[in-house]
Each structure stands twice: as structure tokens, then as C-alpha cells.
Design a protein that fits this description.
Radius of gyration: 23 Å
Largest sheet: 7 strands, mixed
Number of helices: 14
Strand content: 5-15%
Number of domains: 2
Helix content: 40-55%
Strand order of the largest sheet: 3-11-10-9-6-4-5
CATH topology of the largest domain: Aspartate Aminotransferase, domain 2
CATH superfamily of the largest domain: Type I PLP-dependent aspartate aminotransferase-like (Major domain)
Order of helices and strands: HEEHHHHEHEEHEEEHEHEEHHEEHEEEHH
Shape: globular
Number of strands: 16
CATH class of the largest domain: Alpha Beta
């Protein structure tokens, strides 16, 4: 074939090719039209129809498809093409492209209390490097205390956590789907209960506080049991995959206090919660607790960690010693160029403020549903980062399918939750369109669903009112 000849794959050929060459099971049936999609509308080339995007590529699409400020920016497109034509090893070679990204990232995204940055490709690898930074720090701290062998290799983590599917992270991830981790070797690291809030909180506050006390009791037990061997506490400020589980500020502050008392680092995994969805750039800023390290990814396009000054308590920490943490590509220059422009657009278009405003509207619509639809409960959210519960996982999955049939792509999480992960650019009018579809889907499934006889709570929910 002539190398200059245009080669096109027809939409109706896509599924066969994917099935032949990849593990494509479980993918959406659509063939995404890269040029035909725009904003929060995803165009399916196979069916020639559009879908309202309430899933945001699993929370990784920050500003929607084909943003006009990206498409019309010739300078950006030129820099993007230059980065795409030649894949540079960022860990070895400096470029003006990466310098521009670092300047923007430092100004917009990097808090003063987290001065150190490291970039890599993949959210799980970001988490792994956060752990490596903590292990290195803790072992060196223990050497300072007089240890003559390496101690400081354990990670305190939580039930219903999702931190990735590679290496170290397999020992942390434990969500509803066992396929993510089963049969892979894991470390026996201490895991504690997750005292998630139940909403409305004022009706459940005593139970949540009791759950928090249990979690802290378990954590203190492990710190006593594994003396000086726990390097860090890692937690998602809001557990996404595990069920959109929110924690009270007081509990996260107690974790920070516990980390300080026991010479451990506090790591917030912000791969899913970062970049504005909660109404602040980082979720921990909305909550009001500062960690020692955060991992980031998804909306950031390029992944990595930013870390604070507690690392300075040891000499030769991972940001001082060259090649201590590293990768060939050091992230991906194309992703950096893209995220550089995304950050500028987030600033120019006040998209974090939009996430606050539209998020309040979304939450009000969800509370209306909860008030009038017995199958909806536990409405929760910060900004656009919202979720609801329905009676069962099977019921939830049918609702998701019904929404897709009616033109809305939306996600599940946890055992029986539906989560909202729209781009930051979504409008209140688009929220209303999606909510009407969701309401219709909930009503349709409720009218058709026949629960097992033993599930009396579900039968009551489906027949009440």
C-alpha cells in the first residue's frame, strides 16, 4: 500500500477488528466519531446518533470534545503536532514544550505546600510512585532512628478503595468487581474499614461517627502492631469506583494527625477527584485537609504525583536523588501540551466555578428525584462529582442500559450506585436533559423489575407511594 494513501476503517468493521486483536469485551457498542462529537455530545458513527456525556471517559474528559478554543488555536495545534511527530524521553531531554507545560501547571495546579512534581503515564503508576516516595522516606527515617535493616514497607489503606491494577496497587484495590484483582499476588498490607457518610448526614451522624471511631481504632492498632513499618496512609478523598464514598473533614484530619504522630505520610489519591469536578482544583482543597503527597491522572491527561516538604526530613529523598523515581518517557509530551491548553481554558472559561454552579443545580435535581422517587436514595456530591443509590446492583445496571438506549451515557460504581462524571463545561440545561432521561429510565425499570421475594426492602421501595 502507498504510504501516502488514505486508509479508512468503516464503522461497521470496528467491532470485528477489535475482537480479533484485543480483549474488547465489555466495551460500549458505539464507535466514537472523533470529529463529529462536540462538547458533552458523543457522536456514534455506527448508529449515526449522539449521546449526552454523563461519563466523561471515566472522569478523564475535562472540557468536553473538540473544544473550539483548541480547534481554532493554530499555535496549540502546531505544538501538539510537533510533540506527536517525535516522542521525546522527557526524563532525559528538555524541551520548550514541556517547560511551557510546567510553567502553567505550577501556576494553576500545584499548591505551594506541594512543591515537588513527578510525571508518568498512567494513574496506577502515579500511585505506585507515591508509594515509592513514602517507602524511601520511611526507611530513611528509620535509619535515622538507629535501625540497621530496612523497615517501613507497609501501607495502611481502606475498604472499597480503588488505586489501580498494577504492581503495588493490586494490594490496595478492593472494590465490588473481583476480576480486577483476583489471582494476582498481593502484599498483606493493613486494611481498615471506610467510614463513609450516609446522606442525609444529619439523620446518620451518630452512626457515621461511630464508624469513624472504629476505623481510627483499627488504624491505631495497626500502627502499634507494625511498629515503624507503616510508611503511609493512602485514601481517596472521595472513593469513586468503590461507591462515591465521601468522608467527613474531621475524619480526614484525624488521619493526618495519626500520620504525623506515627512518622507516616498521608497520601491522597486524586486520580479521579482532581481538576475541578468537586468545585475546587483538588478535592482535598474543597474538604480542607492538606496531604503530604497526591497522585493525579485522568483529567490531567499526563499522570504523576506532587509532594510536600515533609520529604525534606530525610537526606536524599526521591526528589533529591537522581533516577530514584523515573521512567523512560517521563509522562507523555503530547499529553502535557494538551493539558497545558486545557488548564488555560479552565482558567479563561471559569470552569471550576461552573462546576460549582452547575453542580449545585445537579444536586438539587437529584434531591428532587429522591423526594419523589422511592427507588432513589443517599444523594451525595461535591460540585459535579455526584452520585445516587438505587435498590440493587441489578436494578442499577438495567437503569444504565435504559439510559444508554435513550441517549445518555452514565456510569455505575460500588454495589448499587450511579455516578455522574460530566466534563466541567456542562450546562444546567444539559443536566436537565440528562436528568429527564434518567427519571424515565428509573420509572421504566421500576415498573418492570421483579425483585426476589426475600428482598422486602426493595419490594417496599418499588411499591411505596
Amino acid at each position: 500500500m502507498d504510504s501516502g494513501q488514505k486508509r479508512r476503517i468503516a464503522p461497521d468493521q470496528v467491532e470485528q477488528i477489535f475482537m480479533e486483536h484485543t480483549n474488547a469485551r465489555g466495551m460500549m457498542p458505539m464507535v466514537l466519531g472523533m470529529s463529529g462529537s462536540g462538547g458533552v455530545q458523543l457522536h456514534d458513527e455506527l448508529q449515526n446518533r449522539s449521546y449526552l456525556d454523563f461519563f466523561g471517559f471515566y472522569a478523564s474528559n475535562a472540557i468536553g470534545m473538540n473544544h473550539p478554543k483548541m480547534k481554532s488555536d493554530d499555535d496549540f495545534r502546531e505544538r501538539l503536532m510537533e510533540a506527536a511527530l517525535n516522542k521525546v524521553t522527557n526524563s532525559d531531554i528538555r524541551t520548550t514544550h514541556m517547560a511551557r507545560f510546567l510553567d502553567t501547571f505550577g501556576r494553576v495546579a500545584k499548591p505551594d505546600y506541594l512543591p515537588h512534581a513527578f510525571f508518568v503515564s498512567g494513574g496506577a503508576l502515579a500511585v505506585e510512585n507515591a508509594l515509592k516516595a513514602a517507602f524511601d522516606w520511611k526507611v530513611r527515617k528509620n535509619f535515622q532512628k538507629g535501625y540497621r535493616r530496612e523497615v517501613g514497607h507497609k501501607v495502611l489503606h481502606f475498604d472499597q478503595a480503588f488505586h489501580g491494577r498494577t504492581g503495588y496497587t493490586l494490594s490496595l484495590t478492593n472494590t465490588a468487581d473481583p476480576r480486577k484483582t483476583m489471582y494476582f499476588p498481593k502484599f498483606d498490607w493493613p486494611r481498615i474499614t471506610n467510614p463513609k457518610m450516609i446522606f442525609p448526614l444529619e439523620k446518620h451522624l451518630d452512626a457515621v461517627r461511630a464508624h469513624e471511631e472504629l476505623a481510627l481504632k483499627q488504624a491505631k492498632h495497626y500502627f502499634r502492631t507494625y511498629t515503624d513499618d507503616i510508611a503511609c496512609i493512602i485514601v481517596e478523598p472521595i472513593q469513586g469506583e468503590g461507591g462515591d464514598n465521601h468522608f467527613r473533614r474531621e475524619f480526614l484530619q484525624a488521619l493526618k494527625d495519626l500520620a504525623l504522630e506515627n512518622d507516616a505520610l498521608l497520601i491522597f489519591d486524586e486520580v479521579q477527584t482532581g481538576v475541578g469536578a468537586t468545585g475546587a482544583f483538588w478535592a482535598h482543597q474543597a474538604i480542607g485537609v492538606e496531604p503530604d503527597i497526591i497522585s493525579f491522572g485522568k483529567k490531567t491527561q499526563v499522570c504523576g504525583i506532587i509532594a510536600g516538604r515533609r520529604l525534606h526530613e530525610v537526606d536524599d529523598h526521591v526528589f533529591e536523588m537522581g533516577s530514584r523515581i523515573n521512567s523512560t518517557w517521563g509522562g507523555n509530551l503530547v499529553d502535557m501540551v494538551r493539558f497545558d491548553r486545557i488548564l488555560e481554558i479552565i482558567e479563561e472559561d471559569n470552569l471550576i466555578e461552573n462546576a460549582c454552579t452547575v453542580g449545585k443545580h445537579l444536586q438539587s435535581r437529584l434531591h428532587e428525584m429522591e423526594e419523589h422517587m422511592p427507588v432513589v436514595s443517599n444523594v451525595r456530591g461535591r460540585g459535579l462529582f455526584c452520585a445516587i443509590d438505587v435498590p440493587t446492583g441489578e436494578f442499577r445496571d438495567r437503569v444504565l442500559d435504559a439510559c444508554y438506549e435513550e441517549g445518555v451515557v452514565i456510569l455505575g460504581c460500588g454495589d448499587r450506585s450511579i455516578r455522574f462524571r460530566s466534563p466541567l463545561s456542562i450546562t444546567s440545561e444539559e443536566i436537565d436533559q440528562g436528568i429527564e432521561v434518567l427519571k424515565h429510565a428509573l420509572s421504566k425499570v421500576a415498573s418492570e423489575y421483579r425483585p426476589h421475594r426475600q428482598n422486602e426492602d426493595l419490594r417496599d421501595a418499588l411499591t411505596d407511594g
